[in-house]
Amino acid sequence: MYSVPDQAGKLIVVTGANSGIGKEAARRLGAAGARVIMAVRTVAKGEQARAEILGRHPTARLEVRRVDLADLASVGEFADGLAGLAVDVLINNAGVMAPPTRMTTADGFELQLGSNFLGPFALTVRLLPLLAAAVEPRVVTMSSGVASYGRIRFDDLQWERRRYRPNLAYAQSKLADLMLALHLATVAQGDGWNLMSNSAHPGFTRTNLQTAGASLGRDAPKRTLFNGPGILPSQGVEPGTEPLLYAATSPGAISGGYYGPSQWLGLIGSTAAIRIPRSARNADTAARLWAEAEQLTGVALPAAPHAA
User: Cβ neighbours of residue 238 under 8 Å, at least 6 residues apart?
Assistant: First the structure.
C-alpha cells in the first residue's frame, strides 16, 4: 500500500469527498496531517463522511464545504469562500458517470461535460491565485481509462445534434479532464509558474460512481457492465485511490504525469506511470479545448497566477 508522506501544514481541497475515492483520499490525507477541505454537493453526506473518518482518525483536520460542480455560481461561491488561504493541493475528483439520458447542468451544459470537465476547469482557474500562494502547489485531475477511446467533438461538445451515447459522452469528458491537466502543465512550465499539474485514473475501482450516474432518473439502480456480476477484474477503494494519492503527494510525481494501476490493462494493481493516450497528446486540440472552456464558463486563465 502506498504510504502518504507527512502532509502537516498543507491545505488540500478534495472534491467529491463524501464517498468512494474522494472520501478515502480525504481520510488518508487527513491521517497524514493535512488540513482537508471536503468539497461536496450535499453537506449532510459530507458531514457523515467526516464523522466516519474522525471515528478512525480523531485528530484529523477536516472541514466540509459545499460546491456543486454542475453549477458555475456554486463554483464561484466556493472559490470566493477560500479567499486569503494558500491551497497546497487541489484534487479534482468529483464526477458523474453515464446517466441513461441526456441531462443538463444548471448552466445548460450536458451533464457529464459540465460536471466532469467544465466545473473542475472553472474551479481550477479560480483557485490558481491561492495555489500560487503555496510553496509547492499541485493540481491533480481525475481521468479514466475510458479516455483512451474518447473524442473531443468540437462540432457537438454538448451532444445536442447526435443521438446521446452515455458512455461515449463520459469518455469525452474524461479525455477532456486529462487534456486539462496536461495543458495546465504545459502553460505552467512555459510561463515559469511554480505549479505541478498531473492526472490519475483509478482503473476499475468499485464505488457508487458506477451505479449513481446510470441510475439517475430511475426508481431502482441500473445494472451495468461495471456494477453487475464480476466479469472484469476489479479492486476496492483503498488500492483504487492510490494513483490519485501518488499524484497528489509523491516526491516522484511529475508535472504532466499520468498515473494509474499497472496490471490487467490498467484495471487493477499497484500504481505506475501510465502511457498517455495519443488522443490526449495533441497540443493544438488541448489549447482549443481550453479556449472553448474559457468561453463557455466565462472563467479565463490569468496572465500569471499571482497570489491574492
Answer: 1, 24
